[in-house]
Design goal:
15 helices; mainly alpha; about 260 residues
Length: about 260
């Protein structure tokens, strides 16, 4: 989970100043947590408490109303009676990593990832994106085999994971859909050699940098183990007390370094 949050923070400075290189300052003066972190923490909070993802996302989202949410989500967040809005946006996938860390079987992960998505992102691609991101985390921490992760995700969801970061980068641009974010984030992990390398791959694509790095970072943490201590320390210093508290409790329960 901390891997996803760190990815969001690292990628945040490059979301609207996109780059096509892995050579960049890891923590920029403008680095901050965004909606990716807030909603990831909300999902973790629901898992730690009553399992009500919708309630948690509403509570945390309304607590941080200016965190960079998409337009449709913002309307949903402030509606007196929020209803799903048939979104295939990558917001469902960016918040899904806690599901992959917390649940113990493929069926449980797929079920809970769908539950964590469909109260907003009830479009089939929105649900699929959340399931793929969460399952990649689960397989990374259990199978620990990139070939298995690639084949399982590709066969279940139809994503093309046989591409390379170098091949994607030249023509790739900003895109907020699951179908053009989740596969690219997974490829960024698959081609990596470390947690930091996965995040650098994701940011270097020059797309929705914080979300790409959030998704890739969560998978990389599950696969490589503890996020480097210097990165964890920077994240601790940037989180607010309530976000820090949930993150600490989630990591303690599921054996994650923080």
């Amino acid at each position: 989970m901390i891997g996803a949050i760190a990815g969001d923070i690292i990628g945040s400075a490059y979301e609207f100043h996109r780059i096509k290189s892995k050579k960049f300052r890891l923590f920029h003066p403008e680095s901050r947590f965004t909606d990716d972190t807030i909603l990831t923490v909300a999902v973790a909070h629901a898992i730690l408490t009553d399992g009500n993802y919708r309630k948690a996302v509403l509570a945390f989202g309304r607590r941080y109303p200016e965190a960079g949410y998409g337009g449709h989500f913002r309307i949903w967040l402030h509606s007196p009676r929020p209803k799903p809005y048939n979104s295939c946006g990558n917001g469902s996938a960016m918040r899904a990593s806690p599901v992959g860390f917390a649940f113990g079987t493929v069926d449980d992960v797929l079920r809970e990832a769908a539950r964590s998505a469909r109260f907003t992102h009830n479009h089939p691609e929105g649900i699929k994106g959340a399931q793929a991101a969460a399952l990649a985390v689960f397989l990374a921490r259990t199978a620990r085999d990139k070939d298995i992760i690639r084949s399982e995700i590709a066969s279940r969801f139809g994503y093309d994971l046989n591409r390379t970061v170098r091949g994607i980068r030249p023509s790739y641009g900003f895109d907020e859909t699951c179908q053009l974010t989740v596969p690219e984030a997974i490829v960024s992990f698959l081609e990596s050699t470390s947690y930091e390398d996965a995040v650098r791959n994701a940011v270097s694509l020059g797309g929705d940098s914080d979300t790409l790095a959030c998704i890739a970072g969560g998978i990389a943490e599950a696969f490589y183990g503890a996020v480097p201590a210097k990165i964890r320390a920077r994240v601790r210093g940037l989180l607010t007390p309530d976000l820090l508290d949930v993150t600490e409790r989630f990591c303690a329960r599921y054996g994650l370094a923080f």
